[in-house]
């Protein structure tokens, strides 16, 4: 889209079929990246997309609807970071070591995303007030799994290899998720936000150690 003489993006109120909704979501993600969920507002998103404000209402009933979809897209990015952490694992000596490494990579990837993309991380977990999003396809990564499902699969792997007793598997994802998410929040918005990246990484690994021992 060519710029006007003033340097501003020209407004347009039409998009090829199907493009506008995706353009608004992409704009919302960019705003969330720098400003968190508070920055995802309809007027700002339409301005970023180069359309008139009313155009957004063809796809989103209100700001809450837009923010929910942007939140789901951000959760999907969390999942892809966790998947990338698992994909980068070196070959393991055996299935037990592989299962443990995949479990640890889930937490490591989650914490890495929080530190590298704090605005998107805040947005990812800002909207839903329940667990209905935990298996939503829109919040899934390349594997088709959401962050919660990736954690569940990693825990199942620990059971299959005998690391985690089967009778201790129910509810283990809630304990693991609570511990890692709590640290993530402390690192980006709490008293630990001043830690050097190496210290933050070490803290994350210690928390994952604690989870391993605890479950």
TrEMBL record:
Lineage: superkingdom: Bacteria
InterPro entries: Homeodomain-like_sf, HTH-type_TetR-like_transc_reg, HTH_TetR, MT1864/Rv1816-like_C, Tet_transcr_reg_TetR-rel_C_sf
DNA-binding region extent: 41-60
Keyword tags: DNA-binding, Transcription, Transcription regulation
Gene Ontology MF, one: transcription cis-regulatory region binding
Domain HTH tetR-type: residue ranges: 18-78
Pfam families: TetR_C_33, TetR_N
PROSITE patterns (UniProt xref): HTH_TETR_2
Protein name (Swiss-Prot/TrEMBL): TetR family transcriptional regulator
Native source organism of the sequence: Streptomyces alanosinicus
